Amino acid sequence: MAKRIAQFYKVSYEQFKEACLDTFDHFDESDIQEIYQEIRLPKRATKGSAGYDFFTPFPIALNPGKTVKVPTGIRAEMQENWVLKCYPRSGLGFKYRLQLNNTVGIIDSDYFYSENEGHIFAKITNDSNEKKVLELDAGKGFMQGIFVEYGITMDDDVSEERNGGFGSTEA
User: What domains does the chain contain, in order, with CATH numbers?
Assistant: First the structure.
């Protein structure tokens, strides 16, 4: 039987609004409110699926070689010693060479408590060399997240706590 170790939530409206305005200049307050109301929590497609599909909060059209940062509106609370690994959905990778710019998104268990509420972003690139435009309707699955348990070394003595959002633990 699979371990139940996590729960998805929406970030607050204010966090989502801030992320949208930081990324896009064509959304206004009413657009953002409507988009926020329609955000879907990640979900597995079948009982045998390992990955939870993340859905686009708004339509995306991405030309070959172009990149967009997607604020998903989602955060994940999970037990300690677990990580959420995010990958492009395999069909989109196959058809468009869709890539996450950091190759694999790593969402640590303590990210949930960060200043940005643990808001999960995906920076994606259409790396198609066949001149295919990636077009995704709002609510379309584009990324999948898989929860993985991890261990630490016997001599690990880290006591630092997260105090920021994305990139806050970089040296």
Answer: 6-149 (2.70.40.10)
